[in-house]
Amino acid sequence: MRTLILVLRDQLDRDATVLHEADPGRDAVAMTEADVHRDRYAEHKQRLALGFAAMRHYRADLRDDGWTVHYQPADAPAGAEDAPAFLRQQLAEHQPERVAMTEPGRHALLETIEGVCEEMGVPLRVHADDHFLATHDTFEQWADGRKELTLEYFYRERRREYDVLVTDDGDPVGGDWNFDDDNQESFGADGPGMVPEGPAFERDAMTEDVLDLVRTQFADAPGALDAFRWPVTPAQARAALADFVEHRLPNFGTYQDAMWTGRAFLYHSRLSCALNLKLLDPMTAVRAAEEAYHDDHAPLNAVEGFVRQILGWREFVRGVYWLHAPEYVDRNALEATEDLPEFYWTGDTDMRCLSECTGQVREHAYAHHIPRLMVMGLFGLLYGVDPQQMNEWHESMYIDAWEWVSTPNMVGMALYADGGTVGTKPYTASGKYINRMSNYCSHCRYDPDEAVGDEACPFTSLYWNFLDRHQETFSGNRRMNFQLANVRRKSDAELQDIAERVEEVRALTEAGEI
Ligand code: SF4
């Protein structure tokens, strides 16, 4: 064997350069289900099932094309415990001339694999991950010399570069680059009504085997398996995209921030897992949405909102991660040190929004961006949860989370622990925001308008206390002026009462009684 190609769980791209440059007649692929996280923390059952099922279908596809695939299943007796250990075994057994792989989505793993190859005396070639649209060079050049990394400007450049929703003159179609103001509707008192369900893919024997394996061998892993309905092949991922564009894209923009009891998915695409495993090409998704606009099937605010998530935000956070790796994962700008409350895992809390949103995560390994950012992330920010604990929880429980994307979203966007690299201000809000965007508060024992007293919403008390504690920290941030002016209008006595309520909330949280 000349080249051993290591393919990780989130690298299932059949168009990857690392495969194109190899020859199935003389090179081989190595894959292990003992992936990078086993020793770091437990993973949601659906994460494991999706990863294993997608890997096994990928393996079958490669073998059909004549590839030799050395594959270690999760239940292999005496199997290697993680990807680097697996690689070491493979090198000893097959003695390849070199190793090749696509750049992993975790900086520390890349370093470990480099170390294994060096130790074993085998050269390693790491290919750029060309599934992404912006290369590291592109992002570095764009970021060079900028005081602030602002998504909006990065996104506009990508729109022009890829000619997406752009006129012949290089202007945005519809006259604006961003339709965010049209995309913040709630469902009002009547709720969302009927929203077309996503497709339920038929499970073939390979997927059923994996579900049985996770059910029996990973019975102690967090989360439930019953609602598993994720696409496990590129064909299923494309079918999921087509179904989204047909049935949910038209309303996606308007209601993308809205939440409702018992409705985890609403108008969201659920394509992030397929994108992040590399089952779905991002430009295929972008072009499908753009076509829906040109065909008058979906309005511009919906299509632009969807395009911005993929061509803008997804590429932007990956650029930020690699620009600042490896130190980025350890940032803690607000010196937050509280342990992650137990209810993030169990859902056992009488804060209705948190029991509902963490319940969605346990049931589906998923919640859309607003529960992540403005409910579960927001509580972590206001309460002062240690960002690394929060990031590990997020990466372990969400179907689409990998270090390159989880860290900027959780450590950066949600907790502001990166000190403002991905967001120019912390995303703070009181319980009133959650009340406006959902029906959670109407089923809750707390009152989102109150900051003091037994009925006071913990979010609202923590919100004012957070602003009070960090007045100095954010005093130079123009975008915080409005919120800081409001907290300064409160009297010392009011702030003292709020601080006392926050102490109660902290004590109750630690005791598991809230
Ligand atoms: Fe959440 Fe507060 Fe609303 Fe209860 S009142 S659901 S704790 S925001």
From TrEMBL:
- Entry's transmembrane regions: none
Q: Which organism is it from?
A: Salinibacter ruber
Task: Read off the InterPro entries from this record.
Answer: Crypto/Photolyase_FAD-like_sf (IPR036134), PhrB-like (IPR007357), Rossmann-like_a/b/a_fold (IPR014729), UV-DNA_repair_photolyase (IPR052551)
Under Pfam families, the record lists: DPRP
Q: What is the lineage of its organism?
A: Bacteria, Pseudomonadati, Rhodothermota, Rhodothermia, Rhodothermales
Protein name listed in UniProt: Deoxyribodipyrimidine photolyase-related protein
Record's Gene3D superfamilies?
1.25.40.80, Deoxyribodipyrimidine photolyase-related, DNA Cyclobutane Dipyrimidine Photolyase, subunit A, domain 3, HUPs
Which branch of life, at top level? Answer: Bacteria
